[in-house]
Amino acid sequence: MLRFIFRRDSRVCLEYEQSFASKIGKGKCLSFASGRMALYELLSIYKIGREDEVIVTGFTCSVVIESIIKTGARPVFVDISIDTLGTCVESVKQHISSKTKAIIVQHSFGIPADILTLKDIAKSKRIKLIEDCAIAYGSKILGKTLGAFGDASIFSTDHSKPMNTIIGGLLYIEDNQDIFQVLEERNRKAFKLSLARRFGVILRICIERMTYSGSLIRAYCRMILGVLYRLRGFSPFFFPFIESGFQNSFKRKIDKTHRLPPELAYLGSMEINIWPVKAEVRIRNARKLYEFLSEYPSVFELPKAIKNDNCYIVPLRVVFLVRDSNLRDRIMELLDKNSIWFTSPIISRKLQLIDYSYNNGDCPTAEMVSQYIINLPVDLSENENVTLINKLRNILNDV
Questions:
Q1: Which residue has better confidence, 224 or 133?
Q2: Same-domain status, 105 and 34
Q3: How many CB atoms lie within 10 A of CB 334?
Q4: What average pLDDT does range 260-266 have in this prediction?
């Protein structure tokens, strides 16, 4: 990977983009240094701005909302479906207005939202439909891959996502080549990451790979990562992640759009090549976890969509609700609490909900789910997955 640092090689990025696009549909992809940069560029090209509204679920990450706000548009929050934990059709219908210019549909944890119905709604209203596939790579509905249904789709490949290039994101467009050409030209003129940040990313890759080694090495690596996090204010070499331009105030400009560096595109191509194996591991582990959880229907509430025969689901995590607070606390002790996704509306935020124009009660189902949600990793070895199930079983026997 280091050989890409000091040389220009746009072919590596192009090959990565073409390979990624071929896994989604017949369209084209552009890579960026983050998913939010891709979303902001897309909204800008759609000429979405002041007085416009963008429909988005409150069960999402702050960077999605920040990208909308920076265009000058207003985020209009819709709820999630309890069956899919993705964007709710009925809530979308209730919030469409004459000012609505786009609907961002979120597919959560690899579980498809009701994208077919939402596509019909958007088409009938002549509203842009954007799929948020940041946490849903590889899943399908009726054989068609998520990301190929909307006017465009956004993917994230940061270190917490199914496809891991440490930082990064992609924009996919199925059939509007005029829009794609404009975006492609803007992408060519985008900024490049500094050498310090690029070396920092490679350092992070090395450390994260080492955490999969023995327990002692893993402990040291976690300690090093903690130190690097505390040094993030001193140098991008120590903390290479591109943090949100809104972490202190919405008055700050959004991060300048940066291209994905070729060494990470190379890593992305490697991730694509091994994805079939990784996907099979995720599916196998999720199936066994869900089989176990299904033995206790009065304790664990599972999304109904996981049993939808029309869906092929590659899970990001196994997700379920636990309403018994004592049991939930016991399960949480098995995990890093910070690794549980969506324990509040608009996660990973530095500001208050009201600063994002979100009011308590805007998304009642999402707010309820956030109180009881548990989600478990599935990128585990078979033995690790068995150990996790056994620990869950022991907790149930003790309660």
A1: 133
A2: yes
A3: 12
A4: 89
Judgement on whether residues 298 and 332 belong to the same structural domain of the protein = yes
Distance from C-alpha of 140 to C-alpha of 176, rounded to nearest angstrom: 22
DSSP state of 259: B
pLDDT, tens digit (0-9, with 9 covering 90-100), for 33-43: 899 999 999 99
Residue recorded with tokens 């000058």:
72
Given CA atoms 379, 385, 389, 394 in this order, what sign does their dihedral have?
A: negative
- State the Rg of the chain over Cα: 21
So what's the pLDDT on residue 4?
A: 55
User: 154 pLDDT exceeds 50?
Assistant: yes
CA distance linking residue 230 with residue 162, whole number of Å = 26
**Residue 265 domain-assigned (yes or no):** no
Q: What span, in angstroms and rounded, lies between the C-alpha atoms of 155 and 171? A: 6
Specify if 257 maps to a domain.
no
Residue with the bigger pLDDT between 288 and 241: it is 288
Domain assignment present for 250? no
Answer yes or no: is 159 within a domain.
Answer: yes
What is the CA angle 357-363-368, rounded to 5? 130
Q: Determine the Cα–Cα distance for residues 342 and 317; give it in Å rounded to an integer.
A: 12
Q: Using CA atoms, how far apart are residues 343 and 371, in angstroms rounded to an integer?
A: 6
Select the more confidently predicted residue: 192 or 235: 192
- Residue 91, domain extent: 2-188
Residue 67 has φ and ψ, to the nearest 5°, of: -65, -40
More confident residue, 338 or 42: 42
Average pLDDT, the chain: 87
Contacts of 396 (CB under 8 A, 6+ apart): 296, 299, 327
For residue 309, the domain's CATH number is: 3.90.1150.10
Statement to judge: residues 78 and 214 lie in one domain: no
Which among 143, 170, 188 is the end of a domain? 188
Q: Is 31 helix (H, G, I), strand (E, B) or coil?
A: strand
* Predicted structure pTM score: 0.88
How many domains is the chain built from?
Answer: 3
Q: Residue for token digits 């399960």?
A: 331
Q: Which of 173-187, 202-216, 239-253, 319-333 has the highest mean pLDDT?
A: 319-333
DSSP state of 323: -
Contact 155, 134 (CB under 8 A): yes
CATH number at residue 182: 3.40.640.10
Two tokens, residue 87: 């964007």
Element (H, E) at 24: helix 10-24
